[in-house]
Design a protein that fits this description.
Large ribosomal subunit protein bL25; 21% helix; six-stranded mixed beta barrel; Ribosomal_L25_dom; 2 domains; Ribosomal Protein L25, Chain P; 5S rRNA binding; ribonucleoprotein
Length: 205
């Protein structure tokens, strides 16, 4: 992800739930910039649609250059609070960064291909911790499981790191494993039996 988006934002000097609610009604998302080199947190509001567009295009590790009344801040998204009903962003935390700086981030792992017939793939980890240049954070890391047979495992150390990216997670971290199909089916049946027994136990009380 070598590119980034510049978005105009407004300084925010009022706080509290009431003010934040009014911002959201007006289509704005309250946020804050913090970081080692930031003397005091910088509070701002940003257009919700523009923020959502960046998240859709670049994911949770998106880089945003905020233009607050002509003063530009290069930042990385650290956390987004989402409304559980609307899924709209309610608040965003941004980390101030510098060009050439390296950061540790969790990157999604995407498995492609089909394992051997009669097997099922279990993904144990959806993300992997890496260190990358702030302007070259990969949006995802892919790994082909094509043809993998029973008892095969995909470890973090098996993942090919993109340019300017190095693995931070333990190389033995299990990303995925391949099992017999019947093993997976038995596990599902056991879970179903447990859920069916639960109401009966409550009735006995």
């Amino acid at each position: 992800m070598a590119d980034y988006t510049t978005i105009a934002a407004q300084p925010r000097n009022e706080f509290g739930k009431g003010f934040a609610r009014r911002l959201r009604v007006a289509g704005q998302v309250p946020g804050v910039i913090y970081g080692v080199d930031v003397e005091a947190p910088i509070h701002f509001s940003i257009n919700r649609l523009e923020l959502h567009a960046v998240l859709r295009a670049h994911g949770v590790n998106a880089i945003i250059e905020l233009d607050i009344e002509g003063e530009k801040h290069l930042t990385m998204i650290k956390h987004v609070d989402q409304n559980v009903l609307t899924l709209n962003a309610d608040h965003v935390d941004l980390l101030a960064i510098k060009r050439g700086e390296k950061v540790e981030v969790e990157v999604p792992v995407v498995l492609t291909g089909e394992t051997a017939p009669g097997t099922t793939l279990v993904q144990d980890a959806d993300v992997v911790l890496v260190e990358a240049d702030v302007l070259s954070i990969p949006e995802e890391i892919t790994f082909s499981v094509e043809g993998l047979d029973v008892d095969s495992k995909v470890l973090a150390g098996d993942l090919a790191m993109p340019a300017n990216t190095s693995l931070v997670a333990d190389t033995d971290t299990v990303i995925a494993s391949v099992n017999h199909e019947e093993v997976a089916e038995e596990a599902e049946e056991t879970e179903g039996e447990d859920s069916e027994e639960a109401p009966a136990a409550e009735g006995e009380e």
